[in-house]
């Protein structure tokens, strides 16, 4: 019985250390909240210092090396590569529906920002911000 208690106590001490030292794609599990497998609502996109509010249907989900969702009018899919705290969306494909001017303006800004290059991810409290090297950013909320 004493041996089992020591083994259990040792395991209880080692598990948190293993989690703290473990990494997923080079980032400490504790330092980066999960981004994959979550339905994200797009709140806004900021380009050249101007923030554009998202249409109600804009969303994205990143899972299994893919990103898919809606720019607010058109559906899209892309390859998603996550490395450390960066994500790169490439090989984007989209439907080609025409919508009103405001939606199309937002959609073009969002599509350019998401696919322009690697984006730095920062998340907390159900929010995720994707920031391009030039400062443009996409604000997302957990759906």
Automatic annotation (TrEMBL):
Gene3D superfamilies, alphabetized: 2.40.128.270
Domain DUF306: 35-138
InterPro entries: DUF306_Meta_HslJ, HslJ-like_sf, Hsp_HslJ-like
PROSITE patterns xrefs: PROKAR_LIPOPROTEIN (PS51257)
Record keywords: Signal
Transmembrane region(s): none
Annotated Pfam families: META
Signal peptide bounds: 1-20
Keyword Iron-sulfur: no
Designated name of the protein: META domain-containing protein
Protein species of origin: Streptomyces hyaluromycini
Taxon lineage: Bacteria, Bacillati, Actinomycetota, Actinomycetes, Kitasatosporales
